[in-house]
Amino acid sequence: ILIMGMETSCDETAVSIIKNGTEILSNVVASQIESHKRFGGVVPEIASRHHVEQITLVMEEALKTAEVTYTDLDAIAVTEGPGLVGALLVGVNAAKAVSFAHGIPLVGVHHIAGHIYANQLVDNLEFPLLALVVSGGHTELVYMKEHGHFEVIGETRDDAAGEAYDKVARTLRLPYPGGPHIDRLAAEGEASIKLPRAWLEGSYDFSFSGLKSAVINTVHNAEQRGEVIKPEDLAASFQESVIDVLTTKTIQAVKEYKVKQVVLAGGVAANKGLRAALEEKFSRIKDVKLTIPPLSLCTDNAAMIGAAGTVFYKKGQRALLDLNGNPGLDITIHN
Ligand code: ATP
Ligand code: MG
Ligand code: FE
């Protein structure tokens, strides 16, 4: 099965060609980070305009690199949501145009299902499975009893992990996106500053806004008193708090749901501290396989959309030409 994956939900214009849901023939990503940097975040209108400029070029390059043409494709899988509506629409409409012109079946994919299925490009998935999703807009634990079936057992009640990283980075006057900068600083510092952890009465939900505020208050109080706090120590303390909560809740859920595999997903999965902590913890847990994608498959890409799309295509899911971008799409549409 040969599938074209397409992703335009945020600030990456991405197209891939994926064979049998596991093999990457091409994976082209045009990032817009440079255009959004000076605004300190993604500007939706600018994102849409860049997608319009890039999408056909990126599609052509993906086909060319994979050495295939439209007639070779079994389906086109496109991110339907969630994301910025104006950005989603560019990918959805390009996918519909090609689907109609070449008579290729269309499959709509939930962006987070895509992030989870990035793991299928590196490892065989074994069920039941637990996905720890940590991205710019989501932080959740997703239980999967089988392929293409998603149950959210816990999610953030306020900020996503990536959002907290980006806001803390802004407080430390680091460039956007701040996650990788905090990660780098954290490795150089000591986690010597006491910061809160939100356990939320043993539920699998998360909360990072209290932690974010504590970091901001720490910086402001120090500034007022004329004290100096080492940014690397603050980064290390913040990161330790995030990792502590994420790993503890994941292990708790692994035990309760008796899963065979844990997969890490989303942009924050690129975090070196989180990857190392999970690897260390799971090396001591027997009979549970831990899978972590390479950095390029953690942040937004279309290979993951092609991988997920292949699963949904095999399950018989099809989108029609009335497919629309849906910013509030629920992952259980695939169940
Ligand atoms: P969503 O997937 O929820 O719709 P998104 O697509 O905008 O959101 P991703 O592209 O999956 O988010 O991830 C981007 C986020 O990942 C940003 O918040 C960024 O700071 C964070 N991130 C990237 N690398 C790292 C890292 N090394 N450490 C921590 N955070 C990171
Ligand atoms: Mg992005
Ligand atoms: Fe994403």
From TrEMBL:
It is found in: Cytoplasm. It is an enzyme of class 2 (transferase). Binds 1 Fe(2+) ion per subunit. Residues 23-306 form the Gcp-like domain. Its EC number is 2.3.1.234. The gene is tsaD. Fe cation binds at residues 111, 115, 300. Belongs to the KAE1 / TsaD family. It comes from the Bacteria. The keyword Cell membrane does not apply. It catalyses: L-threonylcarbamoyladenylate + adenosine(37) in tRNA = N(6)-L-threonylcarbamoyladenosine(37) in tRNA + AMP + H(+). Required for the formation of a threonylcarbamoyl group on adenosine at position 37 (t(6)A37) in tRNAs that read codons beginning with adenine. Is involved in the transfer of the threonylcarbamoyl moiety of threonylcarbamoyl-AMP (TC-AMP) to the N6 group of A37, together with TsaE and TsaB. TsaD likely plays a direct catalytic role in this reaction. Its cofactor is Fe(2+). This is tRNA N6-adenosine threonylcarbamoyltransferase. Keywords: Acyltransferase, Cytoplasm, Iron, Metal-binding, Transferase, tRNA processing. GO terms for cellular component: cytoplasm. One of its GO terms (biological process) is tRNA threonylcarbamoyladenosine modification. Substrate binds at residues 133-137, 166, 179, 183, 271. GO terms for molecular function: iron ion binding; tRNA N(6)-L-threonylcarbamoyladenine synthase activity.
